[in-house]
């Protein structure tokens, strides 16, 4: 748990140290709220929601740091509705890393080229999230890691993981152009970045 929390500290520290204008903070807060709303609206359908897709799109359009912030803040904020617990820092880290990696310059350029790359990244992000959260589940059972238990969890989670992966791919492709267009307009209109 300390390892996951400490992994989030450098990004938050760097962001706090940097002089931000209020417009950028409001934009991050609104994007976080939209991601949380996406998770909330689809809560009745297991593993189907646009939250990760919105986080991916934020990373692509606004960069790695903002992608991480929107991802990790979306996790902690949405868990106010769905329940906080020791799993929350793991969700913060995994969704944050999904946004961070999508915002890295060379990955960002690749994802902008084609919907196929965006769909593949959505699938890989879903696998990463599922595999990482299954690691937490193994540790939460009796505080030590067991490969047998981990593999059993991976196998039993296959339907959930498949649904989540394709949900990420579908919503990423569906929402990318709309959100990107709106974000570009907002960045120009309010002179952000």
From TrEMBL:
Residue ranges the record marks as coiled coil: none
Record carries keyword DNA-binding: no
Classification via Gene3D superfamilies: 1.10.1760.20
UniProt KW Calcium keyword: no
Transmembrane segments: 25-45, 52-76, 88-107, 114-133, 153-179
Keyword vocabulary terms for this entry: Membrane, Transmembrane, Transmembrane helix
Record GO terms (molecular function): transmembrane transporter activity
Name listed for the protein in its UniProt record: ECF transporter S component
Organism: Enterococcus quebecensis
């Amino acid at each position: 748990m300390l390892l996951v929390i400490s992994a989030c500290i450098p990004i938050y520290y760097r962001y706090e140290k940097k002089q931000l204008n209020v417009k950028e903070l409001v934009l991050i807060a609104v994007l976080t709220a939209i991601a949380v709303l996406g998770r909330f609206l689809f809560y009745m359908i297991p593993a189907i929601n646009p939250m990760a897709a919105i986080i991916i799109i934020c990373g692509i359009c606004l960069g790695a740091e903002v992608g991480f912030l929107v991802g990790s803040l979306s996790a902690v904020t949405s868990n106010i509705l769905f329940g906080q617990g020791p799993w929350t820092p793991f969700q913060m880290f995994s969704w944050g890393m999904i946004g961070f990696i999508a915002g890295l310059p060379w990955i960002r350029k690749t994802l902008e080229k084609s919907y196929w790359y965006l769909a593949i990244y959505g699938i890989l992000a879903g696998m990463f999230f599922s595999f990482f959260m299954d690691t937490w589940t193994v540790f939460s059972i009796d505080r030590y890691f067991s490969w047998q238990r981990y593999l059993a969890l991976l196998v039993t989670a296959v339907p959930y993981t498949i649904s989540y992966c394709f949900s990420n791919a579908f919503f990423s492709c569906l929402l990318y152009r709309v959100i990107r267009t709106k974000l570009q307009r907002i960045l120009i209109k309010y002179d952000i970045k």
